[in-house]
Amino acid sequence: MFVLKFPIATILTLTLILGLTQSPAITPPAPDRIGELTVLGTATLPTGFTFAQTEVGGLSGITYDAGRDLFYAVSDSRGDNGPPRFYTLKLNWNSEPLKLDSIEVVGVTFLVDAEGQSFPVGSIDPEGIAFDGNHLWISSEGNVERSHPPFVKQFSLQGREVAELPIPDKFFSGDRNIGIRNNLALESLTLTPDGNTLFTATENALIQDGPEADENRGSPSRILRYNLAAAEPEGEFLYETESVVASSIISGGFRINGLVDLLALSDTRLLALERSFALGTGNTIRLFEVSLAAATDIASVDSLKNHIGDVSPASKTLLLSFNTLGLAVDNVEGLTFGPILPDGRRSLIFVADNNFNPLQQTQVIAFAIARPLSSRPNAFSQRVSSFIQKILSGGVDNPGK
User: Fold this and answer.
1) Model pTM?
2) How far is CA 60 from CA 1, 14, 188, in A?
3) Residue ranges per domain, the chain?
4) Residue 15: in which H helix or E strand, if any?
5) Which of 105, 124, 143, 299 is buried most deeply by CB count within 10 Å?
6) Which one, of 189, 195, 368, lies nearest residue 266 by Cα?
7) 3-state helix, strand, coil in the chain (%, to 5)
8) Which residues have a Cβ under 8 Å from the Cβ of 392 and sit 6 or more positions away?
9) Helices (H), strands (E): how many in the chain?
10) Cα–Cα distance between 244 and 112 in angstroms, integer?
């Protein structure tokens, strides 16, 4: 036997090339890019399913707690289907092949204000949720018809209000001729992986910005970005939704398309989830990748009606249309990154709001995000890695002896 000796600089160089010195992040970062998405299955709960004397339903937003490997999902009950609340969920997986098996409800937490009092019935409409490592941020669409404003508030994991971010007056001022439309307001909520920036957005346009989406046109929504260190808004951006996919089979029947959730990749890149629905034709769910890099900051623009042509909107690229998957897809309204899977891929989790409707169901859909080619182990790197480990452990056998 003989020992191959290398200068420590050589070993360190090889180690850095192979990425062996990287330590795992406490909070896994978002992928640099969203590659191919592979379906890992669906799991459902029927409408009417109860937990701790509450009906589990209306789950319109979801977020992941990596430290506990649990999910928090907010119910959009205004109080008419039980008190405002969020549920703690555990997803169970089959290992061979890797597949989502079931949803397990393990907790329910009621939301209360800073004084510990319940929110009046009809005053809030919780829709978006994001976990910052210690607390939950929750957005509410409010209730324009009853003059209740939207909000973005921070809550403890015990459900008590901790803090609130200011909402610009153009979104809600008490003047019914401007601001959010009822039930088309702050539907989405997300935090950047570093926890420094929060995003929310209107589902459709502010009244003074333009029309709701219909079969012929989209709607000019606004993305609102916050600097959490300053606890202040730091930018607004035009997001143009798609048009409604199909007309209702009933003349004048209900139809909608809107921006229902966001998932931040950075302070300029996001995933955007749009949901289109028409009575009798069902849901069309689409996922887009969005960039704000070249978008105009429209925070100083009170009305877009006469300025759309002067504004550069957020750019968007279609990543996935759920209707091509061969799945029975319900009213999908929320998304979050989930755990890193055993093969190193990152999971992407979606949740569907059943509207407390017996004809619908609570649904979770799981995907795996393909790893970039540059991050996948190959035979050469694995051999070199093994070789270095032998060197560090004391020697390499001479193959000629």
Assistant:
1) 0.86
2) 65, 47, 9
3) 1-26+373-401, 38-369
4) helix 8-18
5) 124
6) 195
7) 10, 45, 45
8) 11
9) 2, 22
10) 36
The answer to whether the CB of 37 falls within 8 A of the CB of 319 is yes
The residue type of 344 is G
pLDDT tens string 304-354: 998 999 999 999 999 999 999 999 999 999 999 999 999 999 999 999 999
**Structure tokens that stand for 106 in this block:** 């393990």
Place of tokens 């008490």: 174
Residue 216, classified by CB atoms within 10 Å of its CB into exposed (0-12), middle (13-18) or buried (19+), is exposed
Residue 365: name the closest of 331, 341, 316, 340 by CA: 331
Q: Are 313 and 259 in contact (CB under 8 A)?
A: no
Cα torsion angle, 232, 79, 257, 89, sign: positive
Classified by CATH at the fold level, domain 38-369 comes out as: Tachylectin-2; Chain A (2.115.10)
In angstroms, the CA 93 to CA 100 distance is 5
For 205-249, write each residue's pLDDT tens digit. Answer: 999 999 999 999 999 999 999 999 999 999 999 999 999 998 888
Distance of CA 397 to the CA centre of its chain: 52
